């Protein structure tokens, strides 16, 4: 295939990703072409690789996440782009971050198991918020009295935190406590601005009180 044809494929991919407002995987990108002109997977991967290289000197980058490929603003330009949005950055309590971190590292896990580890009751509002943001879902019920729901993270969770798999989470051996896990999650939240604007859902705090739960952590600027 000629360089001109590869370049045309790159332009089509670029236009589709800018218009989609969500990640597109390789198969979805190939479906943009008619059956007669559809490039082979190897050709598409080559075009994506070249497109990624072409973004090296731009303010945005081509990023591969769990759901596919997307363009997103580089972190260096977040402070300026963030001024386009009137809404203030989403804020997350330490309680929510600890709950999310425990689900990510211990999944599948029940609410009761989270409460045993944290030593406090997990607010229903926190679980609801995580599920409404589509970061967490119910994957089954534990075979014990009451059959409590078991929670796990979703593909949207990986997409939001710029990961392709859970293997990209920092190893637990490198993390001393839940507060440090919260900081790791916070860094993921603040990593980079996306072109698409995820729906914002207000976050509620734990029912338990304490000074540590009054410390809010800023999320990604949208």
**Topology as H/E string?**
HHHEEHEHEHHEEHHE
Helix fraction bin: 40-55%
Uncertain residue segments = 191-222
Number of helices: 9
Number of strands: 7
Account of the 3D structure:
This protein is an alpha+beta fold and 222 residues long. Helix content is 40%, strand content 14%. The strands form three sheets. A three-stranded antiparallel sheet has the order 4-6-5. The chain has a two-stranded antiparallel sheet with strand order 1-2. The chain has a two-stranded antiparallel sheet with strand order 3-7. Strand 1 and strand 2 form a beta hairpin. Helix 5 crosses helix 9 (178-189).
Question: How is the secondary structure organized here?
Answer:
Elements: H1 3-20, H2 26-30, H3 41-54, E1 60-65, E2 68-73, H4 78-81, E3 91-93, H5 94-106, E4 109-110, H6 111-118, H7 124-132, E5 136-141, E6 149-153, H8 155-160, H9 178-189, E7 216-218
Antiparallel strand pairs: 1-2, 3-7, 4-6, 5-6
Quick description:
This protein is α+β, with helices and mostly antiparallel strands. The chain has helices at residues 3-20, 26-30, 41-54, 78-81, 94-106, 111-118, 124-132, 155-160, 178-189, and strands at residues 60-65, 68-73, 91-93, 109-110, 136-141, 149-153, 216-218. It contains 9 helices and 7 strands; from the N terminus they run H-H-H-E-E-H-E-H-E-H-H-E-E-H-H-E.
Any descriptors?
single chain, 222 residues, alpha+beta, 40% helix, elongated, 7 strands
């Amino acid at each position: 295939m000629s360089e001109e044809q590869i370049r045309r494929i790159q332009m089509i991919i670029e236009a589709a990703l800018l218009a989609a407002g969500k990640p597109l995987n390789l198969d979805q990108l190939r479906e943009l072409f008619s059956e007669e002109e559809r490039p082979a997977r190897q050709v598409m991967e080559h075009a994506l690789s070249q497109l990624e290289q072409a973004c090296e000197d731009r303010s945005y980058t081509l990023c591969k996440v769990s759901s596919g490929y997307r363009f997103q603003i580089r972190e260096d330009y977040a402070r300026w782009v963030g001024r386009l949005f009137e809404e203030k950055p989403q804020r997350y309590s330490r309680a929510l971050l600890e709950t999310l971190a425990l689900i990510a590292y211990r999944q599948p896990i029940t609410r009761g198991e989270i409460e045993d580890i944290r030593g406090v009751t997990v607010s229903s509002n926190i679980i609801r918020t995580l599920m409404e943001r589509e970061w967490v879902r119910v994957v089954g019920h534990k075979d014990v009295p009451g059959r409590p729901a078991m929670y796990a993270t979703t593909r949207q969770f990986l997409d939001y935190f710029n990961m392709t798999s859970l293997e990209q989470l920092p190893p637990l051996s490198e993390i001393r406590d839940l507060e440090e896990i919260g900081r790791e999650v916070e860094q993921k939240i603040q990593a980079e601005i996306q072109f698409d604007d995820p729906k914002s859902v207000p976050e509620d705090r734990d029912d338990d009180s304490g000074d540590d739960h009054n410390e809010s952590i800023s999320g990604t600027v949208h």
